[in-house]
Design goal:
The complex is a heterodimer of chains A (174) and B (378). Chain A has six helices and eight strands. With 174 residues, chain A is α/β, with parallel strands linked by helices. In chain A, the strands form two sheets. Chain A has a six-stranded mixed β-sheet with strand order 2-8-1-7-5-6. A two-stranded antiparallel sheet of chain A has the order 3-4. Chain B has 378 residues and is mainly beta. Classes of the chains: A alpha/beta (174), B mainly beta (378). Chains A and B meet through helix 1, helix 4 and helix 5 of A and helix 1 of B.
Chain lengths: 174, 378
């Protein structure tokens, strides 16, 4: 008992030291990195312009933050409002632009995407959203009122868009 | 050729029919894989298949080889209405039992076949943040216990603190029959998760177990840290208080899991000289689009109450004895994933016993084991 208490005391003390050093050192490191972070944010905003967020025309939203968009696409948040369920549809994972999409909007790589959903299936009983090519996705969102997807801007300009509208992305990352 | 009004109307009607037909086909395709059910809006079925083989190189006894586990896990999730859902996970399992677990002459025994309803959970989602669960719950203690499914580990053998010990546990009860309240607080970047639960223990149904976990999960789930506690009553023993700290980090191709467990027991009740304690550190590295995984694990357990008390006398007529142990396990392994949902694994583990119980009857308990296996998730 005495040994364990001694061990725990040392463990907590060392953890506390580690935490204090982290708190002291981090602001210095953060200050140095802030310029790099600003540049990254600018480049990310530029990248976002190459994509369009689409929802059903009856959906009342006009804009969406990047954080909320990620939460809808990853089924962290599943309701637009009471009894109005979100139906995310993801671009085809065989599309050569899929890695750009996952990196920009989901914060992980294309290779990590299947593993993420396998983990979600086991730990939260969730299934991965359906995938579709851009044309099918637009048609589906025109039918499903809770539908949401992200498609390349290039394709958006060349397709018919019945009962579908685009919404503005608000960049809310620091 | 000009169309008359009638033809135009027919053409419009035909277009509408084609459009409706196309919509129907699209929706059917979108819903493909869905199972029809009686009352539920959605019903999903999934699971996994697991086959594991193990061999032990025992310096003081005959080496052992075996396919020691075949398992089929069936998971069903039904969404009854927007707020109400159920989840069940049933294991169909054939497992070879181990006897004399910490003896230099450890061996495999008979095959035990069991059907085990591991999780049977009814959940009411009051909102995206607040939910209430009831049923047979997995206790939200640490990372490995919450992610206890075979496919989510790099090898079949769990960390030392979580392994089964002849039906009892060293640190905490991994399942309870009861209720839990779960609350997620949405931060700008990530979530604070908390879970409070109370229920009957699986080991000795008359005992109530309570526990709480507070953790942080990053936006993409690649950083998880938390602290857990559980208290309850052990069969024929006194109250225990178990504490744990856990972390799981994935940074590009690197990842690691680490946990610390500590149980506070009333001194002298078990005749133990100190409290049980365990920790492990498991780093891994992904290669070639997550298809190859190299992993390691350093695992430590000080089991001061000796719950691995199997018959240490080779004469099976002798009754079991309490056998406290202190050991390290050093593991190196490799996983190959031909597809993201199929995992083939191979690992080597060196078990080293230390402290005053490192020998049994003058023989060192150390041994080497090889584990190989495959898990398919569907």
């Amino acid at each position: 008992m005495g040994d364990s208490i001694k061990f725990l005391r040392t463990f907590f003390f060392k953890s506390l030291l580690l935490l204090i050093s982290f708190v002291v050192v981090t602001p210095v490191a953060v200050a140095k990195d802030s310029d790099v972070a600003k540049e990254k944010a600018i480049s990310k905003k530029e990248e976002l312009k190459k994509w369009v967020v689409v929802v059903h025309a009856d959906n009342p939203i006009d804009q969406i933050t990047l954080t909320n968009l990620r939460r809808y696409l990853l089924k962290e948040n599943i309701y637009w409002s009471k009894n109005f369920q979100v139906v995310p549809i993801i671009m085809d994972s065989s599309d050569p632009r899929f890695n750009d999409f996952t990196t920009l909007f989901l914060s992980f790589s294309q290779a990590q995407y299947p593993r993420f959903w396998i983990e979600q299936k086991f730990t939260r009983g969730l299934t991965r959203p359906k995938e579709g090519d851009v044309k099918t996705t637009l048609k589906l969102i025109g039918i499903l009122k809770g539908g949401i997807s992200v498609i390349p801007e290039k394709d958006w300009n060349h397709l018919e868009r019945p009962s579908v509208k685009s919404v503005d992305i608000i960049f809310d990352e620091k | 050729m000009a169309f008359g009004a009638q033809e135009k109307n027919d053409l419009e009607a035909l277009k509408l029919k084609v459009e409706k037909l196309e919509q129907k086909l699209l929706l059917e395709d979108h819903n493909s894989g869905n199972v029809s059910s009686f009352e539920a809006q959605h019903l999903n079925i999934g699971g996994y298949f697991n086959l594991t083989g193990t061999s032990w190189n025992l310096p003081h006894s005959k080496n052992q080889y075996n396919f020691d586990e075949v398992e089929f896990g069936l998971m069903i999730r039904g969404q009854v209405n927007p707020s109400l859902s159920f989840f069940t996970h049933i294991e169909f399992e054939q497992e070879v039992q181990i006897i004399n677990n910490h003896a230099p002459f450890r061996s495999f025994q008979d095959v035990e076949t069991q059907v085990d309803p591991e999780d049977v959970i009814l959940t009411y989602d009051a909102s995206d943040d607040l939910s209430f669960s009831m049923g047979a719950l997995i206790t939200p203690f640490g990372v490995s216990n919450r992610e206890h499914f075979d496919f989510l580990r790099w090898q079949n053998e769990k960390p030392l603190a979580l392994r089964e010990n002849s039906g009892d546990f060293i640190f905490f009860d991994d399942h309870v029959m009861g209720v839990s309240v779960n609350y997620n607080y949405n931060l700008q970047r990530g979530f604070i998760e908390s879970s409070l639960y109370a229920g009957s223990s699986n080991v000795g149904a008359s005992r109530i177990v309570n526990g709480y976990r507070l953790g942080y999960r990053s936006e993409n789930g690649q950083l998880k840290v938390g602290t857990s506690m559980q208290t309850g009553q052990r069969a024929a023993h006194d109250r225990y208080y178990t504490f744990g700290f856990d972390a799981k980090v994935e940074l590009g191709a690197f990842g690691m899991r680490s946990e610390f467990f500590f149980t506070d027991l009333r001194p002298g009740v078990y005749g133990q000289d100190s409290n049980p304690m365990s920790f492990y550190f498991e780093p891994w590295y992904h290669l070639v689009h997550n298809r190859h995984v190299l992993y390691g694990r350093v695992d430590y357990l000080h089991d001061t109450i000796g719950l691995y008390k199997v018959d240490h006398d080779r004469n099976s007529a002798t009754s079991a004895i309490v056998d406290p142990v202190e050991l390290y396990e050093f593991t190196l392994g490799y996983n190959y994933l031909p597809w993201p949902y199929w995992r083939i694994s191979f690992g080597v583990t060196q078990s080293q016993y230390v402290g005053k119980h490192s020998h049994l009857n003058g023989e060192k308990r150390d041994f080497t084991s090889l584990e190989w296996g495959t898990v398919l998730s569907f």
